[in-house]
Amino acid sequence: MILIAVGHDESDGKIILEKGTNKICFTPPQDPLLPRKIKAFQKLTKKLGGLLFMSKYRSTAVHLLGGCNVSSDPSGGVCNPNGQVFEPDSSSTVHPGLYVCDASLIPCSVGINPSLTITTAAEHISKNLVQEALKYKINNGRECVVKTADQGQEPFIEKNVINCQREMVMVKETMKGYVGGMPCTAYLKMRMNSQDQTFSDVKLGTGKSHPLLRGKVGGHVEIRAFEKDDLHIIDGNVNLCVVDDRTPYTQYMQYDFLLAASTGSRYILKGRKIMNPYFFPLYAWREMTTLHVTLEKVSEEDSKDEKVVLKGELHISMTELLKSIISLQGNNRGRFMCLLSGSFLRTYFLPIPRGNQGDLVLSEDKSYPSSTLHEIKAEDGFTISCRQWKSKLKGDEKLNPVLLLNAYAIESFWLPTEPNDLVRTLIEEGHETWLLNSRLHPLNPSNDFTIEDVGKFDIPAAINKILEIHGRSTKVHVVAHCVGGSAIHIAIMGGHVSATHIASLSCTNSSMFFKLNAMSTFKMWLPLIPLSMFILGNDKTLPLLETSNISSRHRLLKLIASFIPRTERCTCFECEVFSGVFGNAFWHENITPTLHQWLTKKNATRLPMAAFPHLRKMSNSGFIVDSNGCNSYLIHPERMTLPTLYISGGRSLLVTPQTSFLAHKYMKLHQPGFRHERVVVEGFGHSDLLIGGESHKKVFPHILSHIKLAEQGEIHAKGKKYSKEALDREDDQYYEGNFGIFGTWFSPFVVIMLLFISLSWLVAVFF
User: Fold this and answer.
1) Is domain 371-717 classified as CATH 3.40.630.30?
2) What is the dihedral of CA 466, 468, 474, 479, to 10 degrees?
3) Is 285 exposed, middle or buried, given 0-12, 13-18 or 19+ CB atoms closer than 10 A?
4) Cβ(9)–Cβ(30) under 8 Å?
5) If you write DSSP's letter for every residue of 691-715 in order, what string do you get?
6) Cα gap 565→576, rounded to integer Å
7) pLDDT digits over 250-303, tens only?
8) In 3-state terms, the chain is what percent helix, strand and coil (to 5)?
9) Any transmembrane segments, and where (predicted)?
10) Which of 563, 570, 576 is nearest to 523 (CA)?
C-alpha cells in the first residue's frame, strides 16, 4: 500500500548552474511537516499490521514549481507579471518575444495538485502573448525599434507596428445563417494586406489578386447547438478575388479558417462566395452576400469516430454590410473599396476574362485499352456504330456486358485524356463494355431523326448485336446519360426492348421524366427551336469548330447562339456556341482543362439538331412523349420490370433533381417488387457527373455497386413495400421550385424583361 501525505514545504530549494563544469546542482526545499508525516504513517502502519518503508529523500516534490519566478523587478525573479523575461543588465527592458508561461512562474508550493493553478497562470500570460505574437506577424518579423517593459497590465508595444497598421485595412464582418441545419453566426475581423507583399509587387492581368484583397482573419464562430462555447479562429485566411483558370469570368471569395473549441476539438471551415455574371448583375446581391460553407471536424489519427462534415450558408444583411463599410480602418480603406468595387464591375459588367487562357497541347493516353468498332444497320436501314472493349477477366468467371448510352452529341464515357473514365473503370471491374454511337452522335449525324428513333431502332440494334455474340440468355447492364436515358426508357416502355434482356438500368440526370431548370424551360417555351430549324434549312447539322468552313445559315445561327445567356461563360468559342444552343452541360471547375479542350476541339465538333423539335416537346411536357407529342410510354409501367438507379447532380444544370425524384417515385409505385435507388451527388451539375475529375470517387461507386448487386441476383426490393399514400406524401429535399438553382420568385419576370430589352437592342442595331 502506498501512503502519501501532501503539504507545504519551505519553498527554499535551489537550482544552481556550475559554469565551469556545466553541471546543475539541486538542493531540495526544507519540509517542516516531515516529523508529523512520519508519525502519522507509523500509526497507520501499526493499525494495519505492516512494515513502513520510507522513500530515499523522505520528502519529495512530485510537481516541481518555480525556477523562473515572477517578480516586480529582476532582483527578485526572472519574469515580470506578464511572463516577459527580464534583461539581466537592465531593470526596465525585457527580451522581446521571450515568455515563460508554465509552472516555472509559480514561486512557492501551493499545497495541492497545481494543475489548475498552472493553467490559470498560463491563461493570464497568453492574453498578452497572443497580442504580441499578432503584432510580430503584422510587422513581418522586423527587428524591434524600442523594447519597453511594462510594469502594469498593458503589454509592450513596438513603435513600428503602427506604421504597418497604416498600410493595412481592418474589416469587420458579421454573417448569420445555418450550417447543418443549426443556427450559426460568424464574427470576423480581417486584416487585409497582411502578406509579405507590397503594392508594387503586383502585376495586373496575371489573375493574382491585389494584396489589399487578401489577408488574415481572426474572430470566432458560434454554433451553440453543436458546440456550447465559441469556436475561436486560430488561423484564418481570406481572399476576396480568387480566379480559377477554368472559369475566367467567375470571381470567388475564399474563406479558410482553423477553429478551436474549449473542449479541445478542432474544425476546418471552408467558405466560398461565387459571383457568376449570369444575366449581368441579376443575382449580384445574393451572390456577394452568400457564403457557402463546409465545416469539418479534424479527427485524430487513431480515432474511429465517423467523419463529421456539415454544409450550409451564411449571409450578411444590408445592415451588417453598412456597419462593415463604416467601421473600415486604415489609410488605404478608400483604395480597398475601389479595388473591391472594380472587381465586381469587371465580373458583372465587363466581359474581360482573368487568369491564363492559353491553349493546351492535347496528349491522348496511348495505353488506353484497345477496342473494336462494329458498324450496325438498324431496322430502318440507318447505319450506326458500337465500340466494344473486351473484359480483362480470365477463366470461368464471366460478368454480364455493359452498354453505355451517351447524351446529345457529347462524349460522357470514353475519355482518352482522362485516367479514370467509366470505360476504364468497368473494364477493370471485369465487364465487357459497349459504347453506342447512335444517330445522335457526331460520327453518325442524320438530318431527319427523333429521339424516338434512337429508342425504337438504335438501342434495339445494339442490344441485338451483343446478344448475337454472347447468346440470347445474356443480360445487359445499361448505363445512360441525359437523352440516352430518355431513349432507353422509350425503348423499354415502348416494347422495342424486353426488360428480360436488361440486368440493371443506371441513369444520370435522365429518366422517363424530363424536368429542366428555369432558364432551359424558358428557352424551350420560346420559339427558338422552330426559328433555328428554319435558319438551318435542309442541313440540320451545325459545325461547331471556329475554323470550320460553314454556310451563311450556320454562321447566322452561331451568331444568335453567342447572344443567348448561359449559366457560365467560357473563353472557348466552340464551348460558347454549344452552351448557347443547348445550355451549359457541365460546371467548368469540375473538369480538367485537357478534357475541356478535347471535348470542344476533337469530340463535339458537330451538333446534329434534327431531334431538337422532339426534345422540345418532351421538355414542355415534362416526360417522354412520341414524336407527335402524345403520351405513348408512361402508360406502360408493367414493362419496367428491372432494378433501377437514378443519379442527379446537387448543383443542377439543365436538368433538375426532380427528374430522378419523379422517376424513383414512379418505379417504387408501379414496380415495388424490384430494387430502386436514387442518389443526388452534391457539387455536380449535368455531364460532369460522368466526366468530372472527381467522378471516379463520388459517382462511379454508386453505379458499380448497383451493377454488382444485380450480378449477385439482388434485383428485388427488401423489407416493407411502399404504399401509394406514403409515396404521395413523399417530398424531394432537393426540389427548388420551378426556377432552378439560380431562380427566385421574381426571376422569370426579370428574365423576360432582359430578353425583351436584348432583342430590342439587336433589332435596333441590325435592322
Assistant:
1) no
2) 10
3) exposed
4) yes
5) HSTTHHHHTHHHHHHHHHHHHTT--
6) 10
7) 999 999 999 998 888 899 999 999 988 876 677 888 899 999 999 998 877 655
8) 35, 20, 45
9) 745-766
10) 563
Cell of 220: 470566432
Is residue 674 helix, strand or coil? strand
Give the span between the Cα atoms of 252 and 269, in whole angstroms.
16
State how far the Cα of 520 lies from the Cα of 518, in Å rounded to an integer. 6
- Joined together, the cell numbers standing for residue 499 give 426488360
Question: pTM here?
Answer: 0.73
CB count, 10 Å around CB of 264? 6
Q: What angle do CA 619, 624, 629 make, to 5 degrees?
A: 75
Residue whose cell numbers read 454544409: 311
Pairing of strands 676-681, 644-649: parallel
Q: Which three cell numbers stand for residue 604?
A: 463535339
Q: What span, in angstroms and rounded, lies between the C-alpha atoms of 292 and 314?
A: 7
How far apart, in whole angstroms, are the C-alpha atoms of residue 428 and residue 412? 18
178-228: per-residue pLDDT in tens?
998 899 999 999 998 855 444 344 443 445 778 899 999 999 999 988 888
* Secondary structure of residue 727 in the 3-state scheme: helix
- Per-residue H/E/C for 171-240: EEEEEEEEECCEEEEEEEEEEECCCCCCHHHCCCCCCCCCHHHEEEEEEEEECCCCCCCCEEEEEEEEEE
291/680 Cα distance (integer angstroms): 22
Q: For residue 727, name the pLDDT band (cuts at 50, 70, 90).
A: low
Vertex 274 angle, CA 270 and 275, to 5°: 155
3-class DSSP state of 36: helix
Read off the C-alpha cell for 469. Answer: 455474340
Task: Judge contact between 579 and 519, C-beta under 8 A.
Answer: no
- E-strand ranges in 584-712 read 606-608, 644-649, 676-681
End-to-end CA distance of the chain: give it in Å, rounded. 105
Whether 586 and 685 have beta carbons less than 8 Å apart is answered as yes
Q: Residue 757: its pLDDT value, please?
A: 54
| SS3 state at 142 | coil
